[in-house]
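Worked example 2:
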Amino acid sequence: MNGLAMHAAAPSRRALARGILARRAIARRLLLALGWALIVLALLLGALWATLRAALAPQAGEWATEIGRGPFKLQASVPQLVWLATTPWIGPALNGARVSSRAGPITLGWASAGAGYPKPVLTLRCEPCALPLPAALGQESLTAPALRLALSRDQVQNLRGTLLLEAISPQGERAAIEAQWQARRHGPGWDVTMHWPEAPARHWLALLAPDLPELRVARIEGGVSASARLQWPAGQFELTPQALGLAVSGLGTESWAHAQSSCGPQRTLDANGWLARAVLAAEDQRFYEHPGYDLNEMLASLAANQQHAAIQRGGSTLTQQVAKLMAAGDERTLRRKLRELLYAVEIEQTLGKARILQLYLNQAPWGRAADGRLVCGADAAARHYFGVPAQRLNARQAVTLAAMLHNPDREAWRWASEGSVSPARLTWVAEQIRGVPVRQRRALANRLRAELRPEPALPAAPASAPDAPGTVVTAEAGKSECLAR
């Protein structure tokens, strides 16, 4: 029996062994197939990665950003990313996606052609959103409570769409500013043109400076429209605003007509005298023509500031300078500029040009004395620099004081250390004076040029000297003329 059992078990062991060998062979084939599949997959992924890198690689100088993480990080062309995001095979996959950015959290959306749009539209909604601003505006960013950007393709690489900015005014009113825009591929990025149709001025203010205290009390009427051109990412920025029927009331500026000042007693100076005319020539040649602000001057200042990537020129009218002296302060920010604008528009109505001019002449700063005391007001300045009251200033003294106003502290320091003001500025102001006979103005300008001409007989000044002798108008010269007259 045992022999028969052993004889019967032998075939089953052989069958078991053959089964094991067969399973091992199958396993080896599966492993081999899996290995080849992994190799092929790796090759495909490598090819896909290489293709992706090649497709997204920025050209020399092109606007680029970093995407991915770890070993899969790469520099990608922003225009190419936008092109891919607006394709009908990738755009729908982005619908509902949320991404973080330096501006704020962004939610992507997608609308197919025919769903209210002639072309497929990619939307980006950012709440809240910190928008970078050109340095020429004196403010790094603008925080909008809500931003919605809609973009679609215009031909192959160009784009068009809308930009909607939303805010809530201090009175709880919804403020919405919407622009139509077009972007044309230009160099490393886009050349963008934008147009904002007329919208209420109070909506613009609620968006640009929602925390202005004046917005809670002022009644602001009129509208603002604008066009802009932006080269992105170069940052070149051109803005053309237009104010329509702008009016402000409720700020209480009527009381400024009787305001007391630390500058000393208020004097009523001749609006047709040399000092008043020289001040207008130096600070605001269109004083009697503008409604408190001068858009042409603002735009010229914006262009100059953009060239220096910093605030170098203010562009304020004389009315705005009064508003700055009386209420807005001297911070170089967009917020202060808007406060200044509101007060300037109102005082044009509540005070009028004659009182505004007198307020400026009585409040304007003319630098500091040797003891650090502020010299302010035309009468105090005339007594400090020339020893006479403002009513007795002669033409050259008046031009000298007016020439100091563009930078009072620097010119006061120069006067104290060198007995002079800027010769170039002095001559320029004399040439700009209006309202006097041409013969008198030319005679004054020629006399100043003659006094400022260097004397060739004198030896050359040392290299460290700020100005060669004969190139300045001195304090003593001004006093001598006054005594002679």
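Residues 86-247 form one domain. The CA atoms of residues 148 and 221 lie 26 Å apart.
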